[in-house]
Amino acid sequence: MASLRDVVAALETAYPPGLAESWDAVGLVCGDPDEPVSTVLFAVDPVVETVDEALQIGADLLVTHHPLLLRGVHGVGADTPKGALLHRLIRGGAGLFTAHTNADSADPGVSDALADAIGITVEGPLSPAPGPALDKIVTFVPVGPAIGAVHEALSAAGAGEIGDYSHCSFATAGTGQFLPHAGANPAIGQVGKLERVAETRLEMVLPRGRRRAVVEALRAAHPYEEPAFDLLEMAAIPSSHGLGRIGSLPEPESFARFTDRVAAALPATAWGVRGAGDPEREIRRVAVQGGAGDSALGAAVASGVDAYVTADLRHHPASEHVLAGTGPNAATPALVDVAHWASEWPWCVQASEVLTAALGGSVEVRVSRTRTDPWTTAATHPETRRPPR
Questions:
Q1: What are the binding residues for a divalent metal cation?
Q2: Domain coordinates in residue numbering, the chain
Q3: CA 349, CA 31: separation in Å to the nearest integer?
Q4: Could you give the CA distance from residue 22 to residue 32 in angstroms, rounded to a whole number?
Q5: Which CATH number applies to 2-103+345-367?
Q6: I need a surface site. Which of 31, 224, 326, 352 has the fewest CB within 10 A?
Q7: Which intervals of the chain are annotated as region Disordered (predicted)?
Q8: What is the structure's pLDDT at 73?
Q9: Exposed/middle/buried for 356, CB within 10 Å: 0-12, 13-18, 19+?
Q10: How far apart are CA 224 and CA 146, in angstroms?
């Protein structure tokens, strides 16, 4: 049987905590890592209904997308709503784990699950996260044993790591030249005499955070009194991580039919699905972002997609967006606004499959179908008429 520690490790491998925004609160909220886990329930929200469900099915762990304790707290007394939920989980022998903005930016993550549910083939992130910040150090070492010593020192300081490889470097042969002046103590040559030395140009990448350590290691290991080196900042390379996704439908379809497609793909909510744009506009390329996404309207426009699917769109940004371009050849994408909960629910299925693949049959996984969307009723005016298909 798997332990809670095993489950957490599997989830954090898929949704690395380092991808979370600085303001977020992700990871294990309560639970003993050494306790066994036989059943895990996945849900969007840690609320009374999902806690009830977890305890009713005998789950050892409730995994949610939204945090219970997003803001700092000074206590979790059972006389507070959130404290009461934690006390119930602990008394019932269940832990709580959260994967929030780290799951949003992961590859695959929340928006991949949304795109897959709608039937979109993903091409990449809508708002790519930059890759790791890297520098390159270039130095020049006299031919001989010093090359190995300098290379090893730089590697030990953190240079030369690329993926699962270490000690990575590139070396080329050349000739160095220098003229020692009075006061110098050259390792090779004499004061006042121009010296030419067979040298090796050594290049290695390094994490920007290791810059000082690598330079200090170079100076300590290099045989020259004043070693020459270049330290170059490398351009950021977009990664497969980031918010939102861009992709394509199998075949073009009208915006009205596309809106129907989205509604059929997601769990039913009182909010439903709303579309802003010409119903007859042809839709092929689509951007999606699970959760609140009007902050990414600019990225959706820049991507050149035909439609953008997200949640919690506000009136004024949406109105101004639609005003910027309408008609079948509009420059801005049509908008599809769905319920926040519904846009993120497909992730629960994805995460459950991730855990099953990581731990096999040692853990039973369940996905909550309890609707925790806060909106419970909706009404349409009798005069409202939907545009013809």
A1: 65-66, 104, 340, 344
A2: 2-103+345-367, 110-129+243-338, 134-233
A3: 23
A4: 25
A5: 3.40.1390.30
A6: 326
A7: 370-389
A8: 81
A9: middle
A10: 10
Torsion 90-92-93-97 (CA) sign: negative
- Determine the Cα–Cα distance for residues 267 and 305; give it in Å rounded to an integer: 25
Indicate the annotated binding residues.
65-66, 104, 340, 344
Q: How confident is the model at residue 325 (pLDDT cuts 50, 70, 90)?
A: low
pLDDT value at position 132? Answer: 84
Asked if residue 129 lies in contact with residue 239, where contact means CB atoms within 8 angstroms, the answer is yes
CATH number of this structure's domain 110-129+243-338: 3.40.1390.30
User: CA dist 105 to 14, 16, 108, 111, 245, Å?
Assistant: 11, 9, 8, 8, 10
Q: CATH classification of 134-233 is 3.20.190.10, yes or no?
A: no
Q: Are 241 and 131 in contact (CB under 8 A)?
A: no
Q: pLDDT tens digit string along 67-102? A: 999 887 888 899 899 999 999 999 999 999 999 999
For the stretch 332-360, pLDDT in tens is 899 999 999 999 999 999 999 999 999 98
List 128's β-bridge partners, or say none. 242
Mean per-residue pLDDT, 26-34: 97
C-alpha 329/C-alpha 278 separation (Å) is: 10
- Tell me the C-alpha distance between 11 and 103, whole Å: 10
Does residue 151 contact residue 206 with C-beta atoms inside 8 Å?
no
What is the residue-wise DSSP string for 199-210?
Answer: EEEEEEEEEGGG
Domains 2-103+345-367 and 110-129+243-338 share a fold: yes
For residue 359, give the H/E element and its range: helix 340-359
Say if residues 97 and 271 touch (Cβ distance below 8 Å): no
How many residues in the chain?
A: 389
pLDDT at 241: 93
pTM of the model: 0.82
Q: Residues of the chain with pLDDT > 70: what percent?
A: 96
CA dist., res. 51 & res. 62, Å (int): 8
